[in-house]
Amino acid sequence: MTETIVNNIADVIGWETIRTVVGLVGVLVVVVVNALVLTWAERKVSAHMQRRIGPKEVGPFGLLQPIADTVKLLAKELLTPQNVEKPLYYLAPVIVFIPVLVSFVVIPFDARLQVKDINVGVLVILAFSSLSVLSILLAGLGSNNKYSLIGSVRSIAQNIAYEIPLLLSLLSVVLMANSLSLRDIVEAQKGVWYVFSQPIAFLIFFIASVAETNRTPFDLPEAESELVAGFHTEYSGMRFALFFLAEYTNVFIVCAMTTTFFLGGYQGPILPGIIWFFAKTYLLVFVILWFRWTFPRVRFDQLLNFSWKLLIPLSFLNLIVTGGLLKL
Amino acid sequence: MNIFTEYTQVFVFAVVAIIFTLVAVAIAYILSPRTQGKKTFATYECGIEPFGSAWIRYSVHYYIYALIFIAFDVDVLYLFPVALSYTRAARSYEFYSLLIFILILGLAIAYAWGKGVFTWKRRVQ
User: Fold this and answer.
1) CA of A149: which chain B residue's CA is closest?
2) Structure ipTM over 0.90, yes or no
3) Is the domain B3-114 a CATH 1.10.240.10 member?
4) CB atoms inside a 10 Å sphere around CB B99
């Protein structure tokens, strides 16, 4: 009975439409739940690394704390400081979410669980993830605040410096997989994961991703001891929450990308693929949280020069060696 | 008629992202309180009166990095089609082309390095 109804609906609006809508709802659920889990995990993990307890009042183990925080942020005043450039200031939190959500289109959660396997998926995800710089620039310029401006300028310099090692380390993966579709890349890792055949590319890619998400030790754009909160200093309430949500989703996306490109994506024995995918992704997320309490913040010239002097030449070498091994 | 091209989903997701943020801000706008304060809407500057505008000209020391980036980003994008068709033919011709291309890119880094782009002068002695 239900099957006939579903088939009838599908005949009218088409399977592709149903797939898109279901994918959209699923992705939105993943985005929201991931942000809730990560805010909780961030506080809990950091607390235990410093021998504190962390949130524990709201719900068992403080699990409901993120929900309480969300309600609080919803009920906070949406301040618009008087000196801001209004169009830019309002636009920044609106477009911050576009690159984040679009990146989910091509991520393969399971062998058949992917919104759309675009044949140039790698390029789509890279193009949109570099667009996130745009909203940071608008926020920094529009706020008319020195901290915001300096924070956003730093963030852009950092993002473009680490964009190139990111691209170059992915190139060696594309060389081996011979495809720009993310599912093909996962399928090409059936025998050996690329983390074993491309260990240098993996390290470069992961370091560059941490830098792209502005996490410690590369968190200079929001270095609180000198820049208050960086580019979102002047944002409050829900607008601030949107930047926050985008940031945590970005952490998830870079870990999901690392999983897809280097850790064999959804592949693994016994358990279903989607469980393997999330297990690998959250393991990497944990590593990123771990970084925050292990490494001190780097100085800005060290940050830029680390990319230009070490990562880029190293990824050039890696590319040449990969190309040579494939041909000679 | 099939409205689905390769990138329809990308477009749909982008539109939904905008709607999502607008709805979230709208809900907050309805729920949030309003204050009337003299200093509430002042630009934040650690509690003191804001000293001038933020839109002044100042030297961004790492501006030159952005210039190198533009050249590099375009060049690296050329490598993606190369990577795709690299193993189609079993010749070593592609490898030497790749080698020469990357060596030229490496020369650019070496040139910038030699010119002292990557060394920051100390302002305070």
Assistant:
1) B54
2) no
3) no
4) 15
